[in-house]
Structure formats: C-alpha cells, structure tokens
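Notebook entry, structure prediction.
Reason for the run: the old model in the group folder had no record of what sequence produced it. Starting over properly, with the input documented here first.
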Amino acid sequence: MKKSIIIFALAALALSTFNACNNNNKADHSSESKQKKGKYTCTMHPGVSADKPGVCPKCGMDLVERDTTDDK
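New structure, fully documented this time:
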C-alpha cells in the first residue's frame, strides 16, 4: 500500500513538472509574437518597427518589409 502511494506521488510530481515546462515554452512564444508587431523594420535598429513603409527615426534608413514566415 505504501509503495503504491509513493509511486503515485512520484508520478504526479513528474507530470506537474512536465506541465510546468510546457507552460513556460508557451509563454516564450507569446512574448515573441508580442515583439513582432510592425510589418516593417530597420535593418540597423531591429527594435524600430512600423505598420507601413517609412524611414527609421534613429538613422534615416528606409524601413524594409520583415519576413513573417515561420521556419518551424
């Protein structure tokens, strides 16, 4: 009886650890999608993005269309 309780507790611990790891991976993906808001970006300053073509406010270069295809 004690062995089955210990085995059940270890299995529950393993499953909860696995679930916590999967939830962390999902959070990482959602932060990536939040980072990629604009469709156009500066090649010298990737933090600068816009929804339409224009110029970078930092360096004056033209904004280029970002590749939005997923390689995964």
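Summary: The beta strands are 40-41, 49-50, 64-65.
The old model has been moved to the deprecated folder.
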